[in-house]
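chain below, 315 aa
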Amino acid sequence: MMTKAVLRYGSWPVLFLGMSAWIIHLAATGHGILPMLGVLALAIGLTFLVEHSIPYQPEWNRPHGDIRRDWLHAVVNLTLNRALLWTLPLFAWMSLSDGVWPAEWPFWAQAVLSVFTWPTEWPFWAQVLFAVLILDMGIAAAHHASHKFHTLWALHAVHHSVKRLYGFNGLMKHPLHQLIETLTGVLPLLLLGVPFEVAITLPFLVSLSLLAQHSNADYRLGPLKFVFAHAETHRFHHTNDKNGNYNYGLFTNLYDLLMGTFHYQKGATPSTSAELGIGGRDDYPKDYRAQLVQPFVDMQNPRPMPDSSTVKTKA
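prediction:
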């Protein structure tokens, strides 16, 4: 009993905060990508171990004919994430020339925009935290928009079609929607000229956050659940009654607290496959290739949008 309590309250700090700190240290000390990939692989392995030690829903640990599909989504989207985020420094250098604004611009424009340059004088960990908060707000805004506009929802519905939540299906997204979310998050970083050493940590931190958000482990954060966007609150986002019109944050609940879209109700977290998925779409395709095509079918034949009413927080 004591072991389970330790796992419930100790696993998330180790798997997310601890592994994130390790990634940041490796980037700060110039160890390169391979050790960071090793940390991510370790985090994935430990996540599965904890899910089987303290499962939130034991049934969700069993395959639902979705393993191959989820692996394909993960490989494609991890590759896309890294390709986009690792080109940030190059494009930032090309467009901003290390924060020096074009001489032909008016003086007032240069004066205003020069304020918005990367805080290179900050400690490395603080720069990463700054980048994470910017990325989090951008991705959350795109996520929110995906529940309000038909075209975006058609792409995002792929992610909401899951009928169980476990660590590895956090990356089960249509690649076009993944691209939209990522670009929304990284464009502000591009304009600020994020350094390579900072940018290289972001895809790893995103992956760790998605592992924690979708984990089937019965994590408990106590009051911190109102700060961090982890499984205890993210499960509400996958309910099929309103198709998750709340809790859009990736790393934190900051966006949701500001926009009034945060929701938590003690004892009401979905715990069965019947409560997950897309409302009224039990026929949604489960095959990877079919999921790549289905959004374009739905764009041609729009269906009713999810109920977009906000939900009040309940402790």
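Residues 256 and 262 are 5 Å apart (CA to CA). Residues 95-100, 308-315 have pLDDT under 50 and may be disordered.
thats it, cya
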